[in-house]
Amino acid sequence: MSDPKATLFTADEIGRALTRIAHEIIERNKGSERLALVGVHTRGVPIAERLAARIADIEGREPAFGKLDITLYRDDLTEIALQPVVKRTEVPFDVSGMNVVLCDDVLYTGRTARAALDALVDMGRPNVIQYAVLIDRGHRELPIRADYVGKNVPTRRDEVVKVRLTESDGADEVLLVDRKDAL
Q1: CATH number for the domain harbouring residue 54
Q2: What is the mean pLDDT of residues 115-139?
Q3: Is 168 inside a domain boundary?
Q4: I need a labelling partner for 125 at 20 to 30 A (CA). Which of 10, 19, 93, 181 fits?
Protein backbone atom coordinates (compact mmCIF):
# COMPACT_ATOMS: atom_id res chain seq x y z
CA MET A 1 0.00 0.00 0.00
CA SER A 2 1.35 3.41 -0.93
CA ASP A 3 1.02 6.50 1.23
CA PRO A 4 -2.51 7.16 2.46
CA LYS A 5 -4.42 10.22 1.30
CA ALA A 6 -5.38 10.96 4.91
CA THR A 7 -5.30 9.56 8.40
CA LEU A 8 -8.92 9.59 9.55
CA PHE A 9 -8.29 8.27 13.07
CA THR A 10 -5.16 7.83 15.15
CA ALA A 11 -4.99 5.22 17.92
CA ASP A 12 -5.93 7.84 20.54
CA GLU A 13 -8.86 9.06 18.46
CA ILE A 14 -10.15 5.50 18.02
CA GLY A 15 -10.01 5.08 21.80
CA ARG A 16 -11.89 8.32 22.44
CA ALA A 17 -14.54 7.48 19.83
CA LEU A 18 -15.13 4.04 21.37
CA THR A 19 -15.40 5.53 24.86
CA ARG A 20 -18.00 8.03 23.59
CA ILE A 21 -19.95 5.29 21.79
CA ALA A 22 -19.90 3.14 24.96
CA HIS A 23 -21.46 6.01 26.93
CA GLU A 24 -24.07 6.55 24.20
CA ILE A 25 -24.98 2.85 24.22
CA ILE A 26 -25.39 2.88 28.00
CA GLU A 27 -27.50 6.02 27.89
CA ARG A 28 -29.81 4.83 25.10
CA ASN A 29 -30.27 1.39 26.68
CA LYS A 30 -30.63 2.75 30.24
CA GLY A 31 -27.69 0.71 31.51
CA SER A 32 -26.25 -2.65 30.55
CA GLU A 33 -28.96 -5.04 31.71
CA ARG A 34 -30.23 -7.20 28.81
CA LEU A 35 -27.51 -5.61 26.63
CA ALA A 36 -25.48 -7.66 24.15
CA LEU A 37 -22.71 -6.60 21.80
CA VAL A 38 -22.17 -8.71 18.68
CA GLY A 39 -19.16 -8.05 16.49
CA VAL A 40 -19.28 -8.75 12.76
CA HIS A 41 -16.15 -10.61 11.61
CA THR A 42 -13.44 -9.46 11.10
CA ARG A 43 -12.81 -6.03 12.57
CA GLY A 44 -16.22 -5.65 14.16
CA VAL A 45 -15.24 -8.31 16.69
CA PRO A 46 -12.42 -6.35 18.39
CA ILE A 47 -14.55 -3.21 18.23
CA ALA A 48 -17.35 -5.04 20.09
CA GLU A 49 -14.82 -6.46 22.59
CA ARG A 50 -13.42 -3.00 23.30
CA LEU A 51 -16.91 -1.52 23.68
CA ALA A 52 -17.93 -4.36 26.03
CA ALA A 53 -14.83 -3.71 28.18
CA ARG A 54 -15.57 0.02 28.36
CA ILE A 55 -19.21 -0.62 29.27
CA ALA A 56 -18.11 -3.07 31.97
CA ASP A 57 -15.72 -0.44 33.39
CA ILE A 58 -18.50 2.16 33.50
CA GLU A 59 -21.40 -0.04 34.60
CA GLY A 60 -19.63 -2.68 36.67
CA ARG A 61 -21.41 -5.32 34.58
CA GLU A 62 -20.11 -7.01 31.45
CA PRO A 63 -22.67 -7.06 28.63
CA ALA A 64 -23.20 -10.30 26.75
CA PHE A 65 -20.74 -10.64 23.87
CA GLY A 66 -20.78 -12.57 20.62
CA LYS A 67 -19.09 -12.92 17.24
CA LEU A 68 -21.05 -13.14 14.01
CA ASP A 69 -19.94 -14.49 10.64
CA ILE A 70 -22.16 -13.22 7.82
CA THR A 71 -20.37 -14.85 4.89
CA LEU A 72 -23.22 -17.15 3.93
CA TYR A 73 -25.79 -14.34 4.30
CA ARG A 74 -24.08 -12.03 1.81
CA ASP A 75 -25.87 -11.23 -1.44
CA ASP A 76 -22.52 -11.01 -3.24
CA LEU A 77 -21.15 -14.37 -2.10
CA THR A 78 -20.33 -15.54 -5.62
CA GLU A 79 -18.39 -12.33 -6.28
CA ILE A 80 -16.19 -12.64 -3.19
CA ALA A 81 -14.34 -15.87 -3.97
CA LEU A 82 -14.80 -19.36 -5.31
CA GLN A 83 -14.17 -20.75 -1.83
CA PRO A 84 -15.14 -18.03 0.68
CA VAL A 85 -13.61 -18.37 4.13
CA VAL A 86 -16.33 -18.97 6.69
CA LYS A 87 -15.41 -17.89 10.19
CA ARG A 88 -17.01 -19.07 13.39
CA THR A 89 -20.21 -17.55 14.72
CA GLU A 90 -20.15 -17.55 18.51
CA VAL A 91 -23.24 -16.13 20.15
CA PRO A 92 -23.37 -18.03 23.46
CA PHE A 93 -26.65 -16.50 24.66
CA ASP A 94 -30.26 -16.34 23.56
CA VAL A 95 -30.76 -13.09 21.64
CA SER A 96 -34.51 -13.14 22.29
CA GLY A 97 -35.55 -10.18 24.38
CA MET A 98 -32.06 -8.66 24.36
CA ASN A 99 -30.98 -5.18 23.27
CA VAL A 100 -28.38 -6.20 20.69
CA VAL A 101 -25.79 -3.81 19.32
CA LEU A 102 -24.21 -5.07 16.10
CA CYS A 103 -20.67 -3.70 15.81
CA ASP A 104 -18.60 -3.22 12.67
CA ASP A 105 -15.73 -1.10 11.44
CA VAL A 106 -17.12 0.69 8.35
CA LEU A 107 -20.65 1.36 7.11
CA TYR A 108 -20.64 1.77 3.34
CA THR A 109 -23.40 0.36 1.11
CA GLY A 110 -25.38 -1.21 3.96
CA ARG A 111 -25.13 -4.74 2.55
CA THR A 112 -22.98 -6.07 5.40
CA ALA A 113 -25.45 -4.63 7.91
CA ARG A 114 -28.36 -6.28 6.09
CA ALA A 115 -26.58 -9.64 6.10
CA ALA A 116 -25.81 -9.24 9.82
CA LEU A 117 -29.47 -8.46 10.55
CA ASP A 118 -30.55 -11.58 8.65
CA ALA A 119 -28.04 -13.76 10.52
CA LEU A 120 -29.03 -12.32 13.90
CA VAL A 121 -32.80 -12.70 13.50
CA ASP A 122 -32.25 -16.32 12.47
CA MET A 123 -31.08 -16.81 16.09
CA GLY A 124 -34.16 -15.36 17.77
CA ARG A 125 -36.12 -12.19 18.25
CA PRO A 126 -34.18 -9.43 20.00
CA ASN A 127 -36.04 -6.64 21.77
CA VAL A 128 -34.14 -4.15 19.59
CA ILE A 129 -31.18 -4.27 17.22
CA GLN A 130 -28.88 -1.26 17.07
CA TYR A 131 -25.84 -0.69 14.88
CA ALA A 132 -22.47 0.78 15.93
CA VAL A 133 -19.67 1.57 13.50
CA LEU A 134 -16.31 3.25 13.75
CA ILE A 135 -16.68 4.99 10.35
CA ASP A 136 -19.73 5.87 8.26
CA ARG A 137 -18.48 6.70 4.77
CA GLY A 138 -21.81 7.17 2.98
CA HIS A 139 -22.83 5.75 -0.42
CA ARG A 140 -25.72 3.67 0.93
CA GLU A 141 -27.44 1.23 -1.42
CA LEU A 142 -29.94 0.07 1.20
CA PRO A 143 -32.01 2.04 3.75
CA ILE A 144 -29.60 1.35 6.62
CA ARG A 145 -28.19 3.80 9.14
CA ALA A 146 -25.96 3.46 12.17
CA ASP A 147 -27.22 4.31 15.64
CA TYR A 148 -23.69 4.98 16.91
CA VAL A 149 -20.92 6.41 14.73
CA GLY A 150 -17.31 7.15 15.61
CA LYS A 151 -16.91 9.49 12.66
CA ASN A 152 -18.81 10.39 9.49
CA VAL A 153 -16.38 10.66 6.57
CA PRO A 154 -17.55 11.77 3.14
CA THR A 155 -15.69 9.65 0.56
CA ARG A 156 -15.63 8.99 -3.14
CA ARG A 157 -16.43 5.53 -4.49
CA ASP A 158 -12.86 5.19 -5.78
CA GLU A 159 -11.51 5.56 -2.24
CA VAL A 160 -11.17 2.90 0.45
CA VAL A 161 -11.38 3.36 4.21
CA LYS A 162 -8.71 1.05 5.65
CA VAL A 163 -9.27 0.24 9.32
CA ARG A 164 -6.27 -1.26 11.09
CA LEU A 165 -6.68 -2.62 14.61
CA THR A 166 -4.00 -3.98 16.92
CA GLU A 167 -5.78 -7.34 17.27
CA SER A 168 -5.62 -8.11 13.53
CA ASP A 169 -3.12 -5.64 12.06
CA GLY A 170 -0.65 -4.77 14.81
CA ALA A 171 -1.64 -1.09 15.03
CA ASP A 172 -4.66 1.14 15.53
CA GLU A 173 -5.42 3.63 12.77
CA VAL A 174 -7.95 4.44 10.09
CA LEU A 175 -6.64 5.54 6.71
CA LEU A 176 -8.17 6.86 3.52
CA VAL A 177 -6.51 5.43 0.40
CA ASP A 178 -7.20 5.30 -3.32
CA ARG A 179 -8.83 2.00 -4.35
CA LYS A 180 -5.92 1.24 -6.72
CA ASP A 181 -3.48 1.59 -3.79
CA ALA A 182 -5.54 -0.52 -1.36
CA LEU A 183 -4.62 -3.89 -2.83
Answers
A1: 3.40.50.2020
A2: 97
A3: no
A4: 19
